[in-house]
Amino acid sequence: MSEKQEKGKLGEDAVCAELEKRGHTVIARNYRKRVGEIDIISKVDNFIVFTEVKARKLRSMVSGLEAVGYAKKKKLVLTADAYLTENPCELSVRYDIAEVWLTRGEDPRVVRVEIYEDAFTADGVYTVN
Q: Model-level pTM greater than 0.85?
């Protein structure tokens, strides 16, 4: 596994743990379709939640939230649509972005997990600052 993949898995593991603490049931990880990938799919309350995870080393120039641009959001929405076509449900759809801060060095550790709930709409408009 590459360093980038290890960092991503560490971040996704931390986010899954945090989501479960918040009452989510994780139903899929790394859901892939030709159009894109969704890191985590979960259910909570009346929502099906599609979460994009961005792991960053401390003092990175770009935040995880900033790293999810219009093209990435569009891919997330299209991939979520593919998931919902294959797995229809009556739940409301929500798009979250999770930012994971890691220590620098050869053995990174999770310092902080920030989850931006309902971070953007299906048309790509941010709903958080």
A: yes
